[in-house]
Design a protein that fits this description.
heterodimer, A: 261 residues, alpha/beta, eight-stranded mixed β-sheet, 12 helices, 8 strands, B: 362 residues, 48% helix, 14% strand, binds adenosine-5'-triphosphate, binds iron/sulfur cluster, binds magnesium ion
Chain lengths: 261, 362
């Protein structure tokens, strides 16, 4: 696998994990590109320690901005770009993504990177936001979920979207993992036919690092959470399998939780 | 397949035409600069200023209400208009732009009619109805007038679906019959003492072209034993002031030439309903030949009476042929030529009738 897109319910930890995985792979000497596709432009912050100008904002002023103006290198040599997009409630983020990523791939030699991670907005609500997987910019999707019903519900919706555009997923990351919740994720994984790549425990270190605009990989190098993320990163990098997921009806989803959702 | 796959008229264009009927000075299309280029250029012949907000990818991504506001302010300075029409397009409507908000921002809402339609809003009449609704809210037309016009537009859409170019998945194109040949048939019927009914059932300004056939026929009838009667949707007391003025002018020109309309079937914006009235009348008088001008498919007498159908466009022509009208003339300039023109002007069939008539005399 050379490129993945990270999907999951809003606020589930996509950006946190994307930046930590990028930092972990960078630490191993790999050349990594992290592409922030969310109009919020908050994917690269942990790598660079600051916000950068999103590509689309630059393209507003100059149709043809040079890579130096939008591509930045941060911790562990990780390269970052923020695509950017409109303020909430105006314009069209999907169209922005189509244009921004199109331009990015035209300007950057994407093959020169060992691995590319796309951190995408929470839901595939329109064709434009699906462009990353639809156009196969990312070879596979990583689905991030916790064991909460609404999070699995959102993950299932993502599977539904992927199935309808025949895009492949390569694995599930179980975030904010607890020993009690594992069985729900295992059941969900079995039913949609996509393996669990690994789990990341609920971690105060991750929250603290996020607040400091850092990755846990950097500042809590040997913590349990950093070790978990490193192990997941290696699995993702070495993974060679991806398939179009199944998706479940509401009834089937409820069955996963049985009597106590 | 149940969808229609040939090109269809656009609600955006219909909204622009309706704004012209309401005497808007400027129309602002909130969309790409190339949107509805054809209709926009034609309408400019009517003296309406048409501008666009020239939306491009930047505005589609980040929103274009600010741009619309700026353009509205600029238009206000440049043209000092009394009435501005603001029309949405696919581009701006898909990204959820608020036309009124931009007009308020620009401080021109009082003189704006904002119409949030786009090319995928449905039948083209949807665009016209939307403008009328806004005009009613603004007090430019009465609620009764709104209801009447809305009914007519809905009937028009229905007629299109039943018998017009929206009646099947794909309708081809055809050039129609040779106008000289058709003119000979008409004059022969008159010469042989036949009863010829000429029915004008036209839409708005296109009547200025189709009415020319009435003038030509009336001249050519002289010295022939047949009977010639005229039926027309030229009620001068129906519709917006602009539409009434068309009827008045045409009636004036016709009466100058001694032409008397035997039956007025409605106003120039009532062609779906006036068509039904014309149908009833024709079936009563049962002429030997009926010449139907404008929107012939709204006058369903084909197969019962010998007919000449005169309309505009190769697709309409193909449709009329396949419905079974005996002769079909493509009055191909009717639309283009009627814009920017307020007098009866020469038509293809009218000119053919004149020429054949001269041949007969000479
Ligand atoms: N394993 C974890 N343990 C505790 N907190 C976590 C964990 N993973 C993420 N978080 C916290 O959850 C919050 C949301 O994370 P993040 O911004 O990465 O979510 P997201 O999925 O990218 O959200 P969005 O959909 O808004 O882009 C952050 O405060 C982050 O620190
Ligand atoms: S697609 Fe819609 S907005 Fe675009 S040019 Fe056509 S009518 Fe206009
Ligand atoms: Mg995020």
């Amino acid at each position: 696998m050379k490129s993945v897109a990270i999907y999951g319910k809003g606020g589930i930890g996509k950006s946190t994990l994307a930046s930590n995985i990028a930092a972990a792979l960078g630490e191993m000497g790999l050349k990594i590109l992290l592409v922030g596709c969310d109009p919020k432009s908050d994917s690269a912050t942990n790598i660079l320690g600051k916000k950068i100008d999103p590509l689309l904002e630059l393209m507003k002023i100059d149709k043809n901005p040079a890579p130096e103006s939008f591509l930045f290198q941060g911790i562990n040599g990780v390269h970052c770009v923020e695509i950017g997009g409109p303020e909430p409630g105006v314009g069209c983020a999907g169209r922005g993504l189509i244009l921004g990523i199109g331009y990015l791939l035209q300007k950057l030699k994407i093959e020169s990177f060992d691995f590319v991670i796309f951190d995408v907005p929470a839901d595939i609500v329109c064709g434009g936001l699906a462009v990353v997987v639809k156009e196969k910019y990312a070879e596979g999707v990583i689905i991030v979920t916790s064991d909460e019903f609404m999070s699995i519900y959102a993950a299932n919706n993502i599977c539904r979207g992927l199935a309808s555009i025949k895009a492949a997923a390569c694995g599930i990351i179980y975030n904010k993992a607890t020993s009690k919740g594992m069985r729900y994720i295992e059941e969900f994984s079995k039913r949609i036919g996509i393996p669990i790549i690994g789990s990341v425990p609920y971690s105060e270190e991750l929250i603290f690092a996020d607040k400091k605009r850092k990755t846990s990989i950097e500042i809590f190098h040997d913590s349990e959470v950093s070790r978990a993320i490193r192990s997941i990163s290696i699995s993702i990098f070495n993974n060679k399998q991806a398939k179009v997921p199944n998706w479940l009806s509401i009834k089937e989803l409820e069955e996963i939780f049985g009597e106590n959702p | 397949m149940s969808i229609i796959i040939h090109p269809r008229p656009s609600p955006i264009a219909a909204a622009m035409y309706m704004l012209r009927d309401l005497d808007a000075d400027v129309i602002v299309l909130h969309g790409p600069s190339g949107c509805c280029f054809g209709p926009a250029r034609l309408l400019e012949k009517e003296g309406v200023k048409i501008v666009t907000t020239a939306l491009s990818d930047n505005e589609l991504v980040f929103g274009g209400e600010g741009r619309l506001s700026k353009v509205l302010k600029r238009v206000d300075e440049l043209f000092n208009p009394h009435l501005i029409g603001v029309v949405g397009t696919c581009a701006s409507m898909i990204i959820g732009e608020n036309l009124k908000k931009a007009a308020i921002e620009a401080g021109v809402i009082e003189k704006c009619l904002c119409c949030s339609v786009h090319s995928g809003s449905g039948d083209n009449t949807v665009g016209a109805i939307e403008v009328l609704k806004e005009a009613t809210n603004a007090g430019l037309i009465t609620q009764d007038e709104y209801e009447r016009q809305k009914y007519m537009l809905e009937m028009a859409a229905l007629v299109e679906r039943r018998r017009g170019t929206a009646r099947s998945e794909y309708i081809g194109n055809c050039q129609g019959d040779d106008p000289n040949m058709v003119a000979r048939q008409i004059l022969r019927t008159l010469r042989d003492g036949g009863d010829v009914a000429c029915i004008l059932n036209a839409k708005k300004e296109t009547a200025f072209i189709y009415a020319d056939t009435l003038l030509a026929l009336s001249d050519a009838k002289k010295g022939k034993s047949g009977n010639l009667r005229f039926i027309a949707n030229l009620d001068p007391n129906v519709g917006l002031p602009r539409i009434r003025s068309y009827s008045k002018e045409i009636l004036r020109e016709l009466s100058c030439k001694g032409i008397f309309i035997e039956r007025i079937t409605g106003g120039l914006d009532e062609y779906p309903v006036s068509g039904e009235r014309a149908t009833e009348y024709i079936m009563e008088v049962k002429p030997d030949l009926a010449i139907i001008l404008g929107i012939p498919h709204a006058v369903a007498v084909e197969g019962k009476i010998r007919t000449v159908a005169v309309s505009s466009g190769t697709r309409a022509t193909y449709n009329l042929k396949s419905l079974g009208y005996d002769y079909v003339i493509n009055e191909r300039h009717a639309h283009r030529a009627s814009l920017g023109n307020r007098r009866i002007c020469k038509s293809i069939l009218g000119e053919s009738i004149r020429m054949v008539s001269r041949e007969d005399k000479g």
